[in-house]
Fold this protein.
Amino acid sequence: MSEADIVWPLLLPQDPLLDGWQENLPDNTLRTEMEQGPAKLRRRSTAASGRMTLQFLLSGSEGGVLDHFYTATLASGTKTFRMAHPRRGDMMTCRFMSPPEYTAVNGAYCRARLTLEVLA
């Protein structure tokens, strides 16, 4: 399976929790202060990545699906995958910036926090 074919698993929730969702658009500008007058701005490059933090409420079995997706399918987060952008609805390409973080909610559910680099 090529990286372009890897998508967010259907066995996991498709919509993140609103609590904890955060998105930072790419900062692709280079600012140069001038001795006089306003600073000069220019585009840093033609490609830049953003950052997104998502949280999901997962059952025990869904936590296992996420573990397998991260470790096996994505080779410990080194491969990219596609998923629906939570705000726009279109498909985005992203990769993990760090492993998923889990917090217990109760005996049956946990909260998974994902920090993703949004590439496109």
Q: What stands out?
A: The first strand starts at residue 22 and ends at 24. The mean pLDDT is 88. The chain has one domain: 3-118.
